[in-house]
């Protein structure tokens, strides 16, 4: 069973390699997939969206190991959550919530959730207070990849108690939809919470603050340096600048409100 890793550890230090070493000791045949280790440090929203946009392309049954954990060593829970897409292991701080926090429904698709309390499946019963990725999360993911039942790793918890990061879900309006920026990539493109399915006509636009961006098909539909909106490869409406950074040019931030306006074609005139 493959294990997909997502962290903010970077590559300068040994943290990623150490976690892989712990996994290899327990599950030497598990295939490891690096989703990213270059997330902005402690950026829960970036972790949430990266996981959300990546998991559809992973093999069925993948174990997802997510370690973006500014609350490491505190009372925040360590959890494992089974959904129809696989098993997600990480801190209960919202980084996993994009998987089930969709279509305006809380905790959709969760089959089972447990808190990782069984020290028999930790690297040590006395874990470091600064590196749960090594001592709790990596061992748990490895044991799960080996086929250990989820219930063995700890006590079941109510899925409704899992932390969800606050983001404006899509809301229908008289003219279209409202939503929010949920992620900004390293190009400066801003993915919103508006799904591709909200774009139901060919003529549309997105307003953010005082600026309105035309709905487009490709980045090259506008001149270099001009802003636009389009449906990104991740399936969400995205704000961009052709060969530039929407984040820098428009001063965008996660949580900024956006308004999508649909411009239906006028009814044909009656020649009579």
From TrEMBL:
Protein name in UniProt: SAM-dependent chlorinase/fluorinase
Organism: Leptolyngbya subtilissima DQ-A4
Domain of life: Bacteria
Keywords for this protein: S-adenosyl-L-methionine
S-adenosyl-l-methionine hydroxide adenosyltransferase C-terminal domain ranges (all copies): 179-259
Domain S-adenosyl-l-methionine hydroxide adenosyltransferase N-terminal: residue ranges: 3-154
Family named by the database record: Belongs to the SAM hydrolase / SAM-dependent halogenase family.
